[in-house]
Structure formats: structure tokens, C-alpha cells
Design brief:
The chain has 16 helices and 15 strands. The protein has 478 residues and is of the alpha/beta class. Strands 5-4-3-6-7-9-13 form a seven-stranded parallel β-sheet, sandwiched between helices. It has a two-stranded antiparallel ribbon with strand order 1-2.
Length: 478
Amino acid sequence: MTMLLWTLIAIQIVMGVFDTFYHHEFTERLAWRVSQRFELKLHGIRNMLYALLFLVLGWLEVYGLLALLIVAVLVAEIVITLMDFVEEDLSRKLPPSERINHTLLAINYGAILVLLLPVLVDWAMQPFGVSVMNQGLLSVAATACAVGAALCGLRDFAAMRRLGCMRSVPAAELVEKLSGRKTVLITGATGFIGSRLAASLSGAGHHVIALIRNPAKAEMLPPPVTLITSLDQLAGDTPIDAIVNLAGEPIGNGLWTEAKRAKILGSRIDMTGEVVKLIARLERKPEVLVSGSAIGWYGLWADQVLTESAKSHACFSHELCAAWEKAARPAEELGVRVVNLRIGLVLGTEGGFVTRMLTPFEFGLGGPIGTGRQWMSWIERDDLIRLIAYVMATPDLAGPVNATAPIPVTNAKFTEELGRHLRRPAVFRIPGGLLRRIGGGFADELLLGGQRVLPNKALSRGFVFRHETLRSAFEAIL
């Protein structure tokens, strides 16, 4: 075994570790995506094969049939990797960085095979036997890599088993309050909320028109769905019973620079303006426009209980939500009922803020943010879909509607409950001062600030939440 070969193996290990932790754990969060069970199974088998190879090549020279078995393991790794590539392309859209990393891994693995196969062939030509070869630090490093690969494999198998136990409510059941067959236009239809809403409506027999900006994400929406990339594609005589406007630049995926703020604000105002223009030229107006907003409308508060009649405090979140709601208001003048859905923190494992917390919490690195006294007004995603359907089906419900569960909790309680459900400690507190220095307004408003919001309108109209408590929500989604 030459030093060049060990160098290439070391490079392969580094790229593999980057792929596993950056892509699989922190970016794609495969361990919590039910759709990726088979991919996790392939990863687990491959990691166990790597553990075997590291131990053998680090400590032994094997001859005869045993060397041929090592060759068989290398061939099996190639087959599994090809199956993995196919599965990834079929089940999820790989980010560019993951595609590049996979390409480099494949090239480097080819170079390793070119150097390693002649050695194995030479071993295979010798009589059957095993020779222990202590290579000092290389053997120690190989053992460490074997342990790491085995642990990753066990992690993959455990996650696969957990995903097999997770059950979701049939999508069609979530919109049972919406009677008849409706035609619903959804903007932001491939997002965390929009995709579940589209699946629920189409599953219940309603006609969904989905506005998507990225055609590559069309596969996220189960048929039958009518896909459009511009509202201009809809003719004036298109029958539309309801519009759900959820489109907008994500607010939690980067620091709030001036450019980011402008993009967040502009994306919502521009899209809502386009929706209003569509309504103006439709011959038959929709019955309702459910337009997105957020509890950020209220601004930053301490412990004060906030209902739809509460006032606001000035901050960027309020500026954003107020402008978003104002952009939808002209639809009222066109005879359309307008509901501004002030959405809280949406809980689910396929997206939303909680997915960013699962990996650190699962590894025992979670804990409160700042003092932990800030309020978190949350709602489980399926309850939010049910509420949207309820709003569409309730003619006297208009104006701002708080889309939050009836029992908000403090950040300390939230992290305690998440840690309890994952059976992990939640003691690693993140200092508020550090977050402010790094994140500025982003940290102040999204992480360290909060609102204690109650859904008075929904409750007074008879809407019943399936998950009123955080414990109930976590039991459903985790």
C-alpha cells in the first residue's frame, strides 16, 4: 500500500465526511424525511462496507480467496453508489454543491481503484492466508475511520427504522370542511405549506392550479394539478373559487442585509399585486382570497397576550406584514372576501424552522436561545392546512386571522419539550449577545424576540385544533 494510495483514501474520507454532515445531516436532513428511507438504507449498507474495508486495509494483508472477497466488496460499493445516485435523483433534487461533491468522490474513487486493484490481484494470486500488518499511525487512523463509518451506518439504520414508524394523516382529510368541488389557485405551491395544501386539495377531489417559479420543483406536487409559471397564463374566463397566496422570499435562510430585506418585501408585495390584477380581469371573481401574513405584524412584545385586535410595535417584521396585508386590500374593492392569515411558527419535519433544530438536538447540542423567556406562537402544519380550508369555507370570516395554536410556549419550554421527546438533554444555551452581534435585526426579531399570540377569531368561529399542546404536536410529527 503506497503513500499515494493512502493520500487518496484520506481525501475520499474528507469529502465523504463533508457530504454526510453538511448535505445529509444539516442541509437535506435526510434522517427526518420519510421519502428518503431507501436512500438511508443504501447509505447504511455502504458505511458498513467502508468500516470493513478500513479495518482490513489498516491492519491486514489478505491472500487468495480473501483478497477476492475484498474485490467483491469494492464492486458492491460501486453498485450501491450507482443505486444511490439513481434514488437521489428520483426522490429529491440534489443541490449543486452535492452534485459537485459526488462527482469528485466518483473521480477520486476511480483513482483509488486504479492503485488498489493491482495490489489485491497480487494478493489473490498467493496462497490463502492472513498477515497482520501494524502500520503505526496509519492503522490507528484506519481504525478511527472504521469506527466513524460504522457509527454513521448505525445512525442511518436507526433513522430508517424511525421513519418507518412515522405516520402522517391522509392529506385529503385535512380539507373536509371544504364542500363541493372547488377550483383553488395557490401561489407558493411548492413551499413547505403550499405543497401540503395542494396535496390535500387535489387528494380530496378539488381542482388545484399551482403557480410555480421553478419548473424543476413540479414533481413535488402530486397529480392532478394544473401547473402555471405566470398568472398571465390564466384567461379571463378561468373559473377560480378561491386563491391562497403564500408566495414570498424565505425570511429565515440568511441575514437581513439591505438587499435581503428588499427581496423579502418586494417578493410579497409584487406577487400579491399580481394576484389582485388577476382578480380584476377575471369575469367571475373568486369567493375568497386567503393571503399570507405572519404574527410578526404585531412586532416585538414581552408577555402581553395578542389577539387580532391588538396593536403593533414598529420593526421590520411589522413593516413587512403590514405592507403584505395592504397589498391584498384592493381585492375587497373588487367584491372578494380577503383573509390575512397571520401565521405563527409552523411545525413539521419536511420544512420550517424546527427542521433546523432537529439535528443539533438529536446530537445532544440543543438548548434555549438567549434567556429562553421569549414567546413562541406555533402551529402544527396539518392544523394550519385545516385552518386554511376552514377559512375558505366560512363566509363571515374576514380580515386578520391568527394562525397559531391556542397554547403558545416560551423558548425554554419549547426546547425542553423537544429535548424530552428526542430523549436528549437541552442544556446548551446560545448567548443572546453573540446572536445579536452576528445576526443583528434578524436575531432580535426571529430568534430573541417573540409574540404571545392567541387565535381568537378561529376559536370563536368554532375551529377545533387537533394539536392544542406542543407535546401533542411533537408526538404527531416526530
